[in-house]
Amino acid sequence: MKTFADKIAIVTGAASGIGLGLSTELSRRGARVIMADVNRDLVEEKARELSGSGGRTESAFLDVSDAKAVQDLVDSVAKNHGRIDYMFNNAGISITGDVKDMALADWRRVFDVNLWGVVHGIQAVYPLMIRQGHGHIVNTGSSSGLAPWPSVVPYTATKQAVVGLSTALRSEAETYGVKVSVVCPGFINTSIFSSMKYVNIDREKALKELPFWGMDPAKCARIILRGVEKNKAIIVVGWDAWLMWHNYRLFPAAYIWANRYIVKKVREQGVGR
Residue 1: what pLDDT? Predict the structure, then answer.
């Protein structure tokens, strides 16, 4: 509990899902949390709710694909609070369908948020943390960042990049006293599944195929913060994520073969076919 007391933390994608879970748990543990999200009204509402429950939270409108906006937020927080202890680059989106049906704009949007959003966060906060001599950058990847997942290929590509970026940066950053971790959750019950774009896929049919065992974001947040406290390089969340990762490492051919079933199920939900 004391690890996060009186610490300054920025959480992107904080209005819902894992980001809200992290903001809630950090606030409960005594941190001052700057909740940033592209959904201005919702993040303001959630920040007010946490403040009303005794937390110390602030809200900020932020599109992580805008490098200047991210830098401005980091500069403002550092000016107002004197430092930044934690940067949770958590904002993310997805798209599902066959790559053959996707437009270049679909790829760009996912990359702008999931990969460039993380890069923007690092680029903004890392020099500050070096000057401080301390800080912890926590990037949200995914189980698909550890094992490839079909039908969400742009998402998988960005999350594999985030895992590689984070683990490589960790080696550089430790010489400056800065820590870097990457979070790789499995299936978490968040709005990403209902809000993401479906390309030539029946949304309602696809949502019915989602597994019932998705983890609650609050539990996910507790596991993440436990990993942050231990300064883990890769924080794997959920038995499904562990299973995917180990199966892919031990039996890659079998894992890829099994993915054909996923492709088949997704294509069965195609619109107008």
Answer: 57
For residue 254, being part of any structural domain is answered with: yes
Please give the pLDDT value at position 199. 79
pLDDT of residue 213: 62
Q: Active site includes 126?
A: no
Q: What span, in angstroms and rounded, lies between the C-alpha atoms of 240 and 184?
A: 11
Number of domains the chain is built from: 1
CATH number for 202: 3.40.50.720
Q: What is the CA radius of gyration of the chain?
A: 18
197: β partners: 95
pTM of the model: 0.93
Which residues, 6 or more positions from 94, have their beta carbon under 8 angstroms from its beta carbon? Answer: 110, 152, 154, 155, 192, 196
Q: Give the range of the structural domain holding residue 230, as residue numbers without chain letter.
A: 2-268
Measured distance CA(131)–CA(152) in Å, rounded: 39
14-15-20-26 Cα dihedral, nearest 10 degrees: 50
The predicted pLDDT at position 272 comes to 44
pLDDT at position 214 is 81
**pLDDT lower than 50: segments of the chain:** 272-273
- In a domain? residue 130: yes
Asked whether residue 273 is domain-assigned, the answer is: no
Give the β-pairing of 234-237 and 135-140.
unpaired
Among 86, 155, 198, 248, which one carries the catalytic annotation? Answer: 155
The verdict on residue 37 lying in a domain is: yes
